[in-house]
């Protein structure tokens, strides 16, 4: 008996149409997937970053204390050393600070803030840079000149100086009650403002090359809208260098947030990020309370190290000259 799926209307057999592979199957069969699993440092970095991220976002469930709840802090539990010390106490595995705040809990909560601010600032800078870079590279002319000259002005100033200026102006303009509430959005904006230029320059260079190719000229002849050409044809061909730049800049954004918080223009002490914890702990470093500054610093180094290792692997994996 013949399979009805193999019978056409005319009664003749036709071959089965092969099913289209799923996106997961394509990913597993891709060169990028093979490169990742054959790169031990990339696997280690991804596992480390995943562990830090999961523990940071599960902080309300796994941390022994809520460091943001000032009512839960007990001053008689302050300055307790780590658990392996003779004076250590349970459940303060990494000790406490001068206010009785559990260091491990503060690190988990602070890592979540640092990761969110770093990721959001990269997304904001990437969105602005992609849009302006596509416009500058595709249209050229006066639009290109205006966008690139603004970028040149931003690049001529130190990154940290621009961020400090933005946070200082925002803090001076906002009412006292809103400063702490809007501290995170202000930091995200301050880090993203000088960061979009790199993405815009990268996309502009790729867009200028792609805009002169035959398929773009053919799309223009059949009167395809410019925004469709930029999004559907030019942008996909610009994503390889952008992915590498965004990954590496994610680590820089986390470091920038930590630097601003360390300088006192970032997150407030009652909502500490890793930079705020390092700033607070640095005041007691020479008084014997070394754990207040050492453990947040180690956490910050692990996050940035894992992100940079992933970025280095991604840069090598997406480079056609190294295949």
From TrEMBL:
Membrane topology classification: Multi-pass membrane protein
PROSITE patterns: ABC_TM1
This protein's record includes keyword Membrane: yes
Gene3D superfamilies: MetI-like (1.10.3720.10)
The ABC transmembrane type-1 domain, residue ranges: 111-311
BP-aspect Gene Ontology terms: transmembrane transport
SUPFAM superfamilies: MetI-like
Protein family according to the UniProt entry: Belongs to the binding-protein-dependent transport system permease family.
Pfam families: BPD_transp_1 (PF00528), OppC_N (PF12911)
Transmembrane segments: 42-62, 113-141, 153-175, 181-199, 234-255, 289-314
Lineage of producing organism: Bacteria, Pseudomonadati, Pseudomonadota, Alphaproteobacteria, Rhodobacterales
Source species: Yoonia ponticola
Cellular compartment(s): Cell membrane
Domain of life: Bacteria
CC per GO annotation: plasma membrane
Protein name as catalogued: Peptide/nickel transport system permease protein
Main location: membrane
Keyword list, A-Z: Cell membrane, Membrane, Transmembrane, Transmembrane helix, Transport
């Amino acid at each position: 008996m013949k399979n009805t799926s193999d019978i056409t209307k005319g009664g003749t057999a036709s071959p089965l149409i092969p099913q289209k592979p799923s996106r997961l199957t394509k990913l597993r069969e891709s060169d990028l997937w093979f490169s990742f699993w054959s790169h031990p440092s990339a696997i280690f970095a991804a596992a480390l970053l995943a562990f830090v991220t999961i523990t940071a976002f599960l902080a309300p469930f796994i941390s022994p204390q809520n460091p943001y709840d000032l009512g839960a802090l007990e001053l008689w539990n302050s300055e307790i050393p780590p658990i392996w010390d003779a004076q250590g106490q349970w459940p303060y595995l990494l000790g406490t600070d001068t206010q009785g705040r559990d260091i491990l809990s503060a690190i988990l909560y602070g890592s979540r803030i640092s990761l969110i601010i770093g990721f959001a600032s990269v997304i904001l800078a990437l969105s602005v840079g992609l849009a302006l870079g596509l416009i500058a590279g595709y249209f050229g002319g006066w639009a290109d000149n205006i966008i690139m000259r603004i970028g040149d002005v931003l690049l001529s100033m130190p990154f940290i100086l621009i961020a400090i200026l933005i946070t200082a102006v925002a803090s001076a303009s906002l009412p006292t009650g809103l400063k702490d509430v809007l501290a995170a959005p202000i930091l995200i904006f301050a880090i993203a403002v000088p960061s979009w230029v790199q993405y815009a320059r990268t996309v502009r260079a790729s867009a200028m090359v792609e805009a002169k190719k035959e398929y773009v000229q053919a799309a223009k002849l059949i009167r395809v809208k410019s925004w469709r050409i930029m999004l559907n044809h030019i942008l996909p061909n610009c994503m390889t260098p952008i992915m590498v730049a965004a990954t590496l800049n994610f680590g820089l954004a986390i470091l920038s947030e930590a630097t601003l918080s360390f300088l006192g223009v970032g997150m407030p002490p009652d909502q500490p990020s890793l930079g705020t914890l390092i700033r607070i702990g640095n005041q007691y470093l020479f008084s014997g309370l070394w754990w207040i500054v050492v453990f947040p610093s180690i956490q910050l180094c692990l996050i940035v190290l894992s992100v940079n290792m992933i970025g280095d692997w991604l840069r090598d994996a997406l480079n056609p000259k190294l295949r």
